[in-house]
Design goal:
- The longest helix is centred in the last third of the chain and has 15 residues.
- A five-stranded parallel beta sheet has the order 2-1-3-5-4, sandwiched between helices.
- It is α/β, with parallel strands linked by helices and about 170 residues long.
- Helices cover about 40% and strands about 15% of the residues.
- It has a single domain, classed as Ribose 5-phosphate Isomerase B, Chain: A (3-Layer(aba) Sandwich), CATH 3.40.1400.10.
């Protein structure tokens, strides 16, 4: 599995995105930065859509998004078929997002978590693996719902224990 992560943020998440981008590179990951590149006010859905599209298309296996709370980014990313984004503010939730929900996009809030905690959350997410088993049955039901409601494209599932991490205005996000 490639060690590449697409990253994106709005202006509220920009400083944390930059910190986490450096952390990812230090950990040996290639980073595809899809913006924003400044503190100038921008709309978070634009950047969430870019990262989610990169993940859904298979261009990259994983995505990370940062806005003020992480919530707006998660809501937007989850509109893209094949994306399973989880907003996490602690390492346990990040581990469970991967292990039980096969999350392929992690979102965080730059106004919620500081850089040290954000690195711990990202590390927990990157090091976790989808457990499969009863969780595969549940994620299959999520995929079936997505397919039935007209948004679904069948996405490639992570293998249990497989390599790599396995799935308005910005100030409101």
């Amino acid at each position: 599995m490639e060690k590449i992560v697409a990253v994106g943020a709005d202006h509220a998440g920009f400083p944390l995105k930059e910190d986490l981008k450096a952390y990812l590179k230090d950990q040996g990951y290639e980073v595809l930065d899809l913006g924003t590149d400044s503190h100038q006010s921008v709309d978070y859905p634009d950047f969430a859509a870019r990262v989610a599209a990169a993940v859904a298309s298979g261009k990259v296996p994983w995505g990370m998004l940062v806005c003020g709370t992480g919530i707006g980014m998660a809501i937007t990313a989850n509109k893209v078929p094949g994306v399973r984004a989880a907003c996490c503010a602690d390492p346990f939730s990040a581990r469970m997002a991967r292990a039980h929900n096969d999350a392929n996009v992690l979102t965080m809030g730059g106004r919620v978590v500081g850089p040290g905690l954000a690195r711990e959350i990202l590390k927990a997410w990157l090091e976790s693996r989808f457990e499969g088993g009863r969780h595969a049955q549940r994620t299959a039901k999520i995929q079936a719902l997505e397919d039935r409601l007209g948004g679904g494209t069948k996405r490639k599932r992570s293998a249990p224990g497989g390599p790599g991490p396995a799935r308005g205005k910005g100030r409101d996000g």
